[in-house]
Amino acid sequence: MKWINIAMIACSLQAVTLKELIIATLEHNQNIKSYSYTNLSQKHNAQSVSNIYNPNIVVGANYNKLSMDMAPTQIGEVTNTYAKFSINLYNGGKNRALKQQKQYQYKSSAYHSTTLIKQTLLDLVNMYFNLKTTNDNIEVYKEKSKALKAQYERVKIKYNMKMTTIDEVLKLQSEYESNLYNIDELLYQKQQLIRNILLISGIKVDTLDTKTLPDLQITYTPSSNIKALEYTLKSNQANVEVVRSNKKPAVQLTDTVNFYSYSDYNSQLVKDLPHKQNQLAILVTYDLFDTSTNHKIESAKMMQLATANQLAFAKNQEKMEFVLAKEKIKTQLLKIKSLQSAVQMANSVYNIIKAKYENGVVDNITYLDALSKKIYNLALYKKALNDLEIAKANYYFKSGINYKEVLHKF
Q1: Reduced to 3 states, what is the DSSP secondary structure of residue 16?
Q2: Which pLDDT value is given to residue 14?
Q3: Closest to 34 measured CA to CA, from 113, 148, 150
Q4: In 359-402, which ranges are continuous DSSP H helix?
């Protein structure tokens, strides 16, 4: 029993990796599940028009009853059961274009879902490393609180011994309480991030893994968003043909088998009634005049042009964002190097000022300024390290690479 408890404690304290969160998100996130159902809906919608001839068999029955002023040659009751087969031999290419349109819509939907999944994962990565930054900042400001409290207690003793003034005590107390407020704000931000990560992944994060993302060399490929727009464009092109087909003739073949039964009639006057008939018909229709099709064609063409321009812009934008994402990593590395030097310098200055302050050479304003700069630079440095990981993730996802490949390399 003791070993079981130890194992449970070990599991609860085990750091959560980013890869574990991503896998959990892919398996349990409700939005991602909804994308899957949307894709299935589009798939079935495409399958519903897969046969361009649209064959159809209908069975039915009719019952007619006459009463009151009936002529002697009329039949009072007629029951008709039938089976009707129909097929579109030609309808201006409408069904073929409709089939293509639905298939393109399905493929566009699938790529659009991939884009939304990637965005969900990128949001998760941002939250994960922002949570790391928040945790780091909490520790940094706790360090500041520890230094302020030590100086406050030291100065308070001096004040009780009449060796300093009350304003010096109050200044340190004010800074200490202000710093506690900053920590409380960071703790609130931490809870926000933990709850949002829980909402996305279904996992409540207690301890974060210390691993960083791998350094990958990736070449640009068009993303799922570009592919979704390409299929949307094809769908719009097919829609133009769907609308244009309204101006072409349509040919339909029907074959109906009827079975009749009669009652309530004068068999002496009404004879040779049919009991079984087969009716074959070919229906040719052509709309000679309508006031809407031309406008609908132009509307479909304009939508096609709109999507084409949207696609062209998206391609240029995506390439630009990929280049910028790659440059961001370089910039972030330079920033980390600069801040590393700033942290070392601020620590050195603080140690000198602290010694002078405790020996009464400088005032508390100089000391607090040195402490604030030390903490500020350290917080910036910690944030820069985590921002580098966010920049890496953004670079991976902006490349167009399949998110499953990225996950495999984590």
Answers
A1: strand
A2: 67
A3: 113
A4: 364-398
Q: How many other C-beta atoms are found inside a 10 Å radius of the C-beta of residue 7?
A: 10
Name the token pair of 343: 């942290």
DSSP, residue by residue, 213-274: -----------HHHHHHHHHHHHHHHHHHHHHGGGS-EEEEEEEEEEEEEESS-TTTS----
Question: What DSSP line would sit under 99-131, residue for residue?
Answer: HHHHHHHHHHHHHHHHHHHHHHHHHHHHHHHHH
How do residues 1-56 score in pLDDT, each as one tens digit? 443 343 333 334 468 899 999 999 999 999 999 999 999 999 999 999 999 898 99
Give residue-wise pLDDT tens across range 66-121.
988 888 888 899 999 999 999 999 998 999 999 999 999 999 999 999 999 999 99
CA nearest 334: which of 276, 388, 410? 388
pLDDT digits 0-9 by tens, 316-373: 999 999 999 999 999 999 999 999 999 999 999 999 999 999 998 999 999 999 999 9
Contact predicate 315/226, CB 8 Å = yes
Token pair listed for 351: 């140690």
| CA gap 123, 385 in Å, rounded | 18
Which residue has tokens 């769908």? Answer: 235
Q: Look at the block and give the residue holding tokens 């040195």.
A: 370
Residue the block writes with tokens 């998100």: 25
Q: Around Cβ 283, how many Cβ atoms within 10 Å?
A: 12
Q: What are phi and psi of 87, to 5 degrees?
A: -150, 140
Classify the C-alpha dihedral 142-144-146-152 as positive or negative.
negative
Burial class (CB in 10 A: 0-12, 13-18, 19+), 135: middle
Sheet holding 250-263, edge to edge: 56-65, 77-90, 250-263, 276-285
Assign 244 a pLDDT band (cuts: 50, 70, 90): very high
pTM of the entire predicted model: 0.84
Q: Which residues pair with 80 in a beta bridge?
A: 62, 260
Please, what's the b/e burial string for 43-68 (b: 16 or more CB within 10 A of its CB; e: otherwise)? beebeebeeeebeeeeeeeeeeeeee
Q: Which amino acid is at 7?
A: A
Whole-angstrom Cα distance, residue 37 to residue 23? Answer: 19
Whose structure tokens read 């009449």?
162
Distance CA 11, CA 8 (A): 5
**Cα separation of 54 and 37, whole Å?**
26
Secondary structure class of 31 (helix, strand, coil): helix
Distance CA 155, CA 27 (A): 57
